[in-house]
User: Fold these one by one.
Assistant:
Number 1:
Amino acid sequence: MGVEQWTVEVADQLKEEYPNEFKISMMLPFKEFGNQWNERNQMKLSQNINKVDFTASVSNDSYKSPMQLRAYQDFMLNHTDRALLIYDVDNPGKTQYDYEQIKRFSERHDYDYHLIDFDELQEAANEYQNNLNNFDE
C-alpha cells in the first residue's frame, strides 16, 4: 500500500468539505489489480474503491506484461494537466519509472510536474506535530 491509497483517504476528507466541487476517480492499470495482494491490503483497496466517484482499468485484461504498466503511464500523462509526485531522486524505487516517463513527456509537451521529496515530507510532518503540540497547550 502506498501513497496512492493514502491520497484517496485525504481526497475523501476534502470531498466532505467540498461535496459539490470535488470528485475522486481511481484509474487502475489492469483488470483485477491488487488480486495478488494479501487479504488485508485487498480489503483496503476495496474500501478505497468504494469511496471514489469513478473507477476504471486502463487495460480490460488481467496482468499480462509490463506493457500494460507503460500503457497506464501513457494514459495518465495524456489525460491529466500536471503531476504531483512524492519521490526522492536520491532514493529511487518503483516510482522512478513514473518520474522518468513524466520528465520525458514534459520535454515534448506543456506538462508541469512537481516533486515532493522525503525531506519535504519530514518537514511537513514536523510542522504538523508542532501545530498539534501547540494546539494542546
Number 2:
Amino acid sequence: MPRSVNSVASRARRKKVLKMAKGYFGRRKNVWTVAKNAVEKGLVYAYSGRKQKKRNYRALWIMRINAAARLHGMSYSVFMGKVAAKGIELNRKVLADLAMNHPEAFTAVVNTLK
C-alpha cells in the first residue's frame, strides 16, 4: 500500500505560519524552518507581554497617584492606607484617572481623607 501524506494540511499549516511571519526581516519571513522558530518565539513573547502589560499599567497608575498625592502633602502609601481605612472603594485605575483628568475630583477625595 502506498504511503499516504496529507499534503493539503501540511501546506495549510506552513502557509499559516508564513502568514504570521509576514513583516519579519530576512529569511525569517519566507524560509519555513526559520520562520517557524521565529513565530513560535514571537508567540511566547506575546503571551508573556500580555501579562507584563497588566503590571506596567498598575505601575503607571501608582506613579500617577503618588505624584498627585504628593501635591497634597501625602505619600502614596499614606494615601492608599487612608483610602482603605475610610472604606473608599476606588481602585488604582480610577484614582489615577481622577488624578490626571479631574484634579478637582482627586482633591475632593484627598479632602475626605484629611
